[in-house]
Amino acid sequence: MKQIYNARVVSNERAVDNLFRLVVELDAPLYAMPGQFVQLKLPSNEFTLRRPFGIAAFDQNHLTMFYRIVGRGTEFLSTVGEGTQLDLLAPLGNRFNFNVEEKILLVGGGVGLAPLLSVARMFEGADALIGGKTAIEAELWRNEFNGAVDEMFIATDDGSLGAKGFVTELLPDVLARKNYNVILTCGPIVMMSRVASIAREKNIRCEVSMERRMACGLGACLSCSIDTVNGRRKVCKDGPIFDAREVLFDV
Ligand SMILES: Cc1cc2nc3c(=O)[nH]c(=O)nc-3n(C[C@H](O)[C@H](O)[C@H](O)COP(=O)(O)OP(=O)(O)OC[C@H]3O[C@@H](n4cnc5c(N)ncnc54)[C@H](O)[C@@H]3O)c2cc1C
Ligand code: FES
Prior knowledge:
Strand order of the largest sheet: 4-3-7-1-2-6-5
Strand content: 35-45%
Radius of gyration: 17 Å
Number of strands: 16
Order of helices and strands: EEEEEEHEEHEHEEHEHEEEE
CATH superfamily of the largest domain: Nucleotide-binding domain of ferredoxin-NADP reductase (FNR) module
Bound molecules: flavin-adenine dinucleotide, FE2/S2 (inorganic) cluster
CATH class of the largest domain: Alpha Beta
Helix content: 10-25%
Number of helices: 5
């Protein structure tokens, strides 16, 4: 059940470039499922709206998130020091939907790999296809996924680690190697749209983790709506996880 937690910052460190790893200790146990997210209230009157972040790992009282600095809120978050108390609303949204007997392929790009990490850490036996601009970021994710997945495939834009190109270019080769039952994907919308269409061509079920700017995070303001074959749906309440065949990608 969702609730507001007092979250004490245990560490808030730059992982690589403008990507940070934030670990907090909660004042009560959190029971979440992979794919769900949290809304953080930044400790400054300058920010009235909470900011949504995916859950990368949690064990009852500790929660790990990764965030990229993209604007004023995340810039401010990067200055928050150890011991600071944050107000955190969790768990929000739905979960990735899969059966533990299914062979799962996780496909992620950049900070989109964060929520996929929670799948890998909670359920053994998945494979991961990791995409990064350069070796520096791809290496971070390789280390995070190491030991949590059966097999990893890596693609970097410049070829500095793994295959050269986008994950979507490597995806058909990866799919040819094993019989995957389901693909779970999170990352840039262009990437997810392409992953969804490859999955459809290969007749493999695919779930996408959608992102929209959010205000309430609770289904009340409609600011996070997306178009689907079933009409307008709210990412915060009906998602963020959707069956890829349902989403009308606006790319
Ligand atoms: C369900 C969900 C999970 C998320 N998980 C993560 C995560 O694990 N790590 C992470 O780094 N980010 C995540 N995001 C995105 C993150 O919430 C935004 O980057 C953050 O709120 C930006 O705050 P800001 O004040 O720094 O940026 P702002 O100053 O508000 O905006 C800066 C730029 O970022 C864009 N932006 C803002 N919010 C979003 C958003 N929700 N989606 C896409 N673009 C946005 C704006 O259009 C603008 O171009 C998630 C978003 C959602 C909806
Ligand atoms: S953020 Fe308000 S309805 Fe989704």
